[in-house]
Amino acid sequence: MSKNIGIDLGTTHSLVAAVIDGQARCLLDEDGQALVPSAVRFEGSTTEDSAFAVGRPALDRAHLDTGITFTSFKRFMGRSPAEVADEARAFGYQLEGAGTPDGERLIRFRHGELVFTPVELSAMILRELWQLAGDVLLGRPGGAVITVPAYFDDAQRQATRDAARLAGIEVLRLLNEPTAAAIAYGLQQAADGQKVVVYDLGGGTFDVSILELSEGLFQVLSTSGDTRLGGDDFDQAVARSFQAELGLDALTGIEWRTLVRACEAAKRTLSQADQAELTFELGGQTHTLQLSRERFDDLIRPIVERTRGSIERALSDAELRPDQIDEIVLVGGSTRVPLVRDFVRELFGGKAPHADIDPDQVVALGAAMQADILSGASTLTDDLLLLDILPLSLGIETMGGVVERIIPRVSTIPATASQTFTTHVDGQTAVDIHVVQGEREMVRDNRSLGRFRLTGLPSMPAGIPRIKVEFTVDADGILAVSASEKSTGIQASIKVEPSYGLSDDEIEEMLEEAIDHAETDFDERLLVEARVEAEGVATALERALRDDAGLLKAEEASIFAELLVQLRAAMAGADRQRIGALTKKLDEASAPFAQRRIERDLGLVLEGRSADEVSKTLGID
Amino acid sequence: MNCWRCHERVQGPVCAGCGAIQPPPVEPDLFAVLGLERRWSLEPVQVDQAWRARSRLVHPDRFAGKSAVERRMSLQWTAAINAARRALRDPVSRGWYLATGAARPREEGSASLDPDFLEAIFELQVESSEDPEGVRARAGALREQVMGELEARLGAWEQGDRTAAPPLGVEELLSRMKYLDNLADA
């Protein structure tokens, strides 16, 4: 059986891990490295010449100005071009199509003739990790658990899922990063009601989360942080201090980076020693400097101090005092710095933080453990169940731009809510529903997730139709919407227009283009397996269609017919991924029909049941 | 009921024999969704325990590798138990559900209130800017009184035929609780 993997898709670097012989381990590349820099480099700038590199090779050539190296693109996932304009400028990325409708909806970076979305760049990292896992595990992995920050909203989670889909990876679950870290430490075995703080200080971001554990259930109580605070700030502070000391006023970009790199090396030394020596060459001159732990601590103290406000906010959101915290978990390479550890310890009344596991690896290891548990054949434990909450409320726009909350924040997910709408004009056959996420009263102050357009409503006088719209948030925190008109039972059809990010059609298009990059290491046995599974699903559906045509909705009949034709055609070919994708699509599309048959057999069928409704998610189905 | 897959008798959301998840109940009774007896006197921890036990059975993580129809029913079940827990955990909203047959709405209720009571509330609201402590204390005392009344009526109902509609007046008492909660929290 193929093995499931855990992926930490990070801002500065990413890792992949798996449970091997009952032990979670990070998988190492040929050079013995677990950390894969989240960097993608393109050498050329034309569509013919688009040689690229991913990970360390991309970073190693980042200083050359012949091409472009993208880093930190996780910061841009699932966000709107307007929100990130400043940040894109800071990273030197050129945003495409500002002022056009597409340019307002989609973040696209331009380099010469080439255009990239953050989702595509993330997909390239994921594909690299997937291949690394395949090489180490000697076989294609089954599926992946991918971690995301606890504060990620619907659009950001959806973008992460889209990236996985582009990379051809089956996502078993999106897992919150702090939860993954707590799993790696086995904290689910802690006593009931334990409160855990996860302090995650990475290279460029700081996150703090408070979790509550009870009988193997994990709940995120609150989360806070600073997206522009991290270990890179330590290096810069030290570099600025030496720059002033040496009287180096005008440094070129490369000289500055040389100095910063030397300071970073000294920082690492100081995690173990009290004194570090820096040697670097500038302008043909070799400098050798000493950095004491004391001076280093003085330089970085104001930066570390900046994490205090976020921690206090997280505590107050969770309605807790520092002395009510039972466990502290350190995540992120920057928590190796002794001053950071002392600061955290002091903040929580001298309680020693958990730091035995490599803080760079702890999230990936937890994800691997969860992936193993989801395989249903885990040797670790089967008593762990993660229950997550919705980080931000979901609401819809009502009259006057006011938000009506439909699922409040901190609701345990999956969650559903339904709302009845009507029409304002006689004979109106379409209704627009604008879905937003956030806590503010007015629509304009929240994040717009998308518009659902219900069409094909029966023509009736204004106010008569009763359109029941059901909102469902799944275990990954992603929203789906379904609708029907109650008095006539007519199924409204839903068109989804995401406010930001890729539409379903755009993803499909990218997938078609990506076929060129499809794995060449395909394996005859896997192809045979895919065909057998496809045959099973197709035959079962064909039989059901013959036996129970009466339970079929009009729109379902044509969808199934088309998918069956596509699947049969794919099965005749040798593209295993396409067969797999179509099998999955057909299985999912026909699930409501299958459920109706089960309910009919059990005598449970009622008019207007939710199972009768066509369901469509934002962006992806 | 018999399992849709193996046709053995099945109790609860998941078939003990073959592990198949069953369709979620139509028109569910929120107590039954959690496997609880229909009653008012329950501790929050009892609701939580029932919810946890059900979560372990029906959560989507338990059906990660299963067919789409099973994953779909698992999602529906889990959403249903989460909603049931939300509606039943707090005694006032549990009472509301018993009295009205619907989960307590987030917005203000529609039960018509006794004018004397509304007048008392109005006075308390006016005074609360001058003497917030005193108003909180008086609202708290009134709340205790209403709670005692609720306990008496629902307690008596619970001793009798629980399938019968709860006694009259409960809905109004619950509406009063909401006003008093707002004042006590102010």
Features:
heterodimer, A: 621 residues, alpha+beta, six-stranded mixed β-sheet, five-stranded antiparallel β-sheet, 27 strands, globular, disordered C terminus, B: 186 residues, mainly alpha, 58% helix, 0% strand
Report the sheet-strand fraction of chain A: 15-25%
Count of runs of 4 or more consecutive helical residues of chain B: 7
The shape of chain B is elongated
- Which chain pair shows the most residues in contact? A-B, 41 and 32 residues
Largest sheet of chain A: 6 strands, mixed
Calculate the terminal CA-CA distance of chain A, rounded to whole Å: 27 Å
Mean pLDDT across all amino acids of chain A: 86
Quaternary organisation: heterodimer
Portion of residues in beta strands of chain B equals under 5%
Averaged pLDDT of chain B: 84
Distance between the termini of chain B: 50 Å
How many beta-strand elements of chain A?
27
Main beta sheet strand tally, sense and closure of chain B: none
Radius of gyration of chain B: 21 Å
Portion of residues in helices of chain A? Answer: 25-40%
Uncertain runs of chain B are none
Low-confidence segments of chain A, given as residue ranges, are 516-522, 606-621
Question: Helix count of chain A?
Answer: 17
H/E series of chain B: HHHHHHH
Which structural class matches the secondary elements of chain A?
alpha+beta
Radius of gyration of chain A: 26 Å
